[in-house]
Amino acid sequence: MIDYQSLRFDYRRHPDQDAATPARHPVVVVGAGPVGLALAIDLAQREVPVVLLDNDCQLSTGSRAICFAKRTLEIFDRLGCGQRMVDTGVSWNIGKVYFGSEQVYRFDLLPEAGHERPAFINLQQYYVEGYLNERVAELPNIEVRWCNKVVGIEQGAGGATLTIETPEGHYQLAADWVAACDGSRSPMRQMLGQEATGRVFRDRFLIADIRLDGGDDALPTERRFWFDPPFHPGQSVLMHRQAGGVWRLDFQLGWDADPQAERQSERIAPRVRAVLDSIGQAGQGFRIEWASVYTFACQRMASFRHGRVLFAGDSAHGVSPFGARGANSGVQDADNLAWKLAAVVHGEVDGEAAEALIDSYGREREYAADENILNSTRATDFITPKSAVSRLFRDAVLALSREHAFARTLVNSGRLSVPAVLRDSALNTPDADADFGPAMAPGTAAADAPVVDASGQPGWLLRRCTGARFTALVFGDGPAARRSLQALAEADEPVEVVRVPGGEGGALAAARYGARDGTTYLLRPDQHVCARWRAPSAGALRAARRRALGEFAMQEVAA
Q1: pTM for this structure?
Q2: Residues 6 or more apart whose Cβ sits within 8 Å of residue 264
């Protein structure tokens, strides 16, 4: 197996460095982490040439982001590497919550039936980056330039010019669009004079990746969260398994902890030993593979778009690690941005519509960031109460949860990341039919379900929605479905049509979408619902697709 933490990528001189004037590219992505890699792959699959710059020559070290949710795995499927992630990652469903030395309750997150992907997997960030890099190598439209550090940027009306530092000196590169995916400290953000604002939590946490001598079978694959345990009084501890037989422990340290001292193995080993002893593993040997001490914040930039520069991932927003909202929301940023940039680069929209479509990236993902920050802040406040009153409430909830189910719903050790419902997006077409329920409303990420194709072969709904263009889901096999298909043909729009059969072959999909014969959903290329009808007309289909491409702005101006 490849050791992704030891991989090094070669710097290579490019002819652009010798050009008399800056070479111009449609899109330059800055930062080859999970978000930048996902965005570059998505653009390349949409036949947009991409230059991907990174100031380093290696992948991330240590576990860092480790929990990848179902929606992110579905995006990775579309990018061509989801199966590798699932095969390597660890799925778990049993969680145990402790208060003091007592287990107060146990929960079982059995996944809902009828989805190809699990609710989430634990997989270290370096595996994710490694698999994405290998996918990059398979695509002709991406060029990765390692050891290319952006040190300056100037913007004009039609693009931006980047100044890039390399081991052989500086050169300049011009881009129609720049995607800044360069992490929480984002030099790109600083160069544009921007900042991320919000709440910084006055606490420190130690992350320790350990490998147990007993291997993968040393402990059951469970998530354990301790509030105020006797082996770490007054603080919290989290333990869960990762890929490759590595276990991660997060220790709350308090604001006064010395980050340098706490990273030393002689300080870490007794903490790990105490955890193992508490769960009956007194004789279990281990070794420390990586450790880090961090302070986190919940904050974001005021706007994710600044001229021709678009911010995504940690460069745009940051959250605490509880709930796995960082990397997941960043990949969903890339998922939102890629199809919109591709539509503009390919000239599918221009003028006011193009500006509106790009602006919609910021509005939609700023809304999603606010939702993630709210949930992350709530979890952090519960885990690390900063006043006597909040600690009293937290401890009362934990004590009550031993016996009372209602209290367990209040325990917050991190609500799992779910995709934001973009219900107020200007790209949505409001329902024309009153009998649709709230489920799968415009703005919702499409739900998966098992389906049977025309030849009788079983498969998965989202696998049939490639995302290469807009997709129309047409439910049923009867007369109403045939009329919906006729309306799609008359609309004469570049839409991929996916038939969802009636009867048992599409029963679960129909139930999830509240569909009957003829019901039609229009999905954006990022698989978010943008319109739905019981019986669409050609004109309604045409208008909904154009609206989702930003032409709502032109319609509003005309009105």
Answers
A1: 0.95
A2: none
